[in-house]
Amino acid sequence: MPTTDEAVAQAALDTQTGPTSPTAADSGASASASFRSTEQYSSAGLTTDTARVDALARALLGAVHQVISDHEVTYPEFQAAKKWLMDVGEGGEWPLFLDVFVEHAVEEVAARKQTGTVGTILGPYYLPGQVQLTTPATLPARPDEAGTPLAFRGQVTDTTGAPVPGAVLDIWQADEQGYYSGFAPDIPAGNLRGVVTADVEGRFEIRTIQPAPYQVPTDGPTGALISAAGWHPWRPAHLHLLVSAPGRRTVTTQLYFAGGEYLDSDVAEAVKPELVLDPTDVGDGSREVTYDFVLEDA
Ligand code: BEZ
Ligand code: FE
């Protein structure tokens, strides 16, 4: 028998239509559409602080000029770069490209002033407004969802160790093929996504499946660069989380899996050692793991 949460989650899957993107490259374009609908997009604009714009633009262009000089970049290479930059824009892949190759550096700067649970990149595949669940919760999944079942438990506390009642864990992940609902074809909207409210002691239990590694789409310009440079396009398997509570700074993070592929070579350079889970086998084919979150004051 499904629990009330499971019934709510299934109903959410039943009433939403799935994505129609037919190719891997479309996940980049979907990421652009998704970013356009966010508050961060609406509020983004060039700062009015001229000195700051001058400093950043001058430093950025200076770094580009230095690379051209050091590596004796030729006219054909310059034109190839122009074409590739146009392709990234026309393919809607700027959010994808920037989240793969640049976001980690911005996050590392932000982290210098943070305490509590270590954060990492958000990435382009967050979708707000997912089904609301209460602990113990089961993420919405297809009836035949493949993958090793995982029970993910823990407690949310403040920096003194006091429980944070009713903390909220917004969680999303790829499936056992490494695909995200909302960005890949044939996966119901809301699959393996949910917003879980913890109990009065900040404790939570979330039942899901262990995700697979994620591959940056190889058929668009971001993938073309990765392949032209001889890199690999993989991120290690991970769970995404936004952990929040009133009066606390929201932690944006990801949890990885010990022993998993690409932990040491994440294309997005977002793995941190504090964020690696080591689930234990329960004996019935499923796994379980505990991870506690610490939220600092806002
Ligand atoms: C991800 O976490 O899934 C992700 C991060 C950066 C770029 C693409 C995907
Ligand atoms: Fe991800």
UniProtKB/TrEMBL annotation:
<dbReference type="InterPro" id="IPR015889">
    <property type="entry name" value="Intradiol_dOase_core"/>
</dbReference>
<feature type="compositionally biased region" description="Low complexity">
    <location>
        <begin position="20"/>
        <end position="33"/>
    </location>
</feature>
<dbReference type="InterPro" id="IPR043029">
    <property type="entry name" value="1_2-CTD_multi_dom"/>
</dbReference>
<dbReference type="Pfam" id="PF04444">
    <property type="entry name" value="Dioxygenase_N"/>
</dbReference>
<dbReference type="InterPro" id="IPR007535">
    <property type="entry name" value="Catechol_dOase_N"/>
</dbReference>
<keyword id="KW-0479">Metal-binding</keyword>
<dbReference type="InterPro" id="IPR000627">
    <property type="entry name" value="Intradiol_dOase_C"/>
</dbReference>
<keyword id="KW-0560">Oxidoreductase</keyword>
<comment type="similarity">
    <text>Belongs to the intradiol ring-cleavage dioxygenase family.</text>
</comment>
<dbReference type="GO" id="GO:0008199">
    <property type="term" value="F:ferric iron binding"/>
</dbReference>
<dbReference type="GO" id="GO:0018576">
    <property type="term" value="F:catechol 1,2-dioxygenase activity"/>
</dbReference>
<dbReference type="InterPro" id="IPR050770">
    <property type="entry name" value="Intradiol_RC_Dioxygenase"/>
</dbReference>
<keyword id="KW-0223">Dioxygenase</keyword>
<protein>
    <submittedName>
        <fullName>Catechol 1,2-dioxygenase</fullName>
    </submittedName>
</protein>
<dbReference type="GO" id="GO:0009712">
    <property type="term" value="P:catechol-containing compound metabolic process"/>
</dbReference>
<feature type="region of interest" description="Disordered">
    <location>
        <begin position="1"/>
        <end position="33"/>
    </location>
</feature>
<dbReference type="Pfam" id="PF00775">
    <property type="entry name" value="Dioxygenase_C"/>
</dbReference>
<feature type="domain" description="Intradiol ring-cleavage dioxygenases">
    <location>
        <begin position="152"/>
        <end position="180"/>
    </location>
</feature>
<keyword id="KW-0408">Iron</keyword>
